[in-house]
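Hey, quick one: can you model this chain's 3D structure?
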Amino acid sequence: MEYIFTLKYRLHGHGGNQESLANRLFEAGCDDALPGIGQTGRLALEFTRESPNGEEALESAIEDVRCALDSAELIEILPDYVGLTDIAEQVGMSRQNLRKIVMKHAETFPAAIHDGNSSIWHLSDALLWLDQHGYPVDVTTLEISVAAREFNIAIQASSLTADRSRELEALMA
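Sure thing. Here's the predicted structure for all 173 residues.
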């Protein structure tokens, strides 16, 4: 199976030599990634990786980057956080059509993780719901979005202290 995803990193102590950075990534096994350095101190790597499943695709890519750039900090994995337009593109429908579906099924469609002018969902939640309701969903995109969500939640949770984590768990119980 072929999985397409993006790893976003914050670079620490990077000298700014992009060619050296690209060579180190290539030599570490990231020859299936397209690197992008649009912001100073940031790196995005868009992978097209063959793997038995989405989780292994992410894990192997993260390990390859770690071998090349041991001080890089993983900050986000895509695809995960999306708006209606992104979800609609994934299932081949217009944003307006998807909005009608969401409004019609407001009680069962996954809740947005951010409601506002531009609402945001976890792509995996939306794709799972759409799949269960007979809409065409690419299985590799669904699988990689589930794995990306789990990693992103772990990234966010790692910033909590153990005491604060226990406090929050107690409040939610």
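One thing worth noting: The chain has two domains: 2-78+147-164, 81-137.
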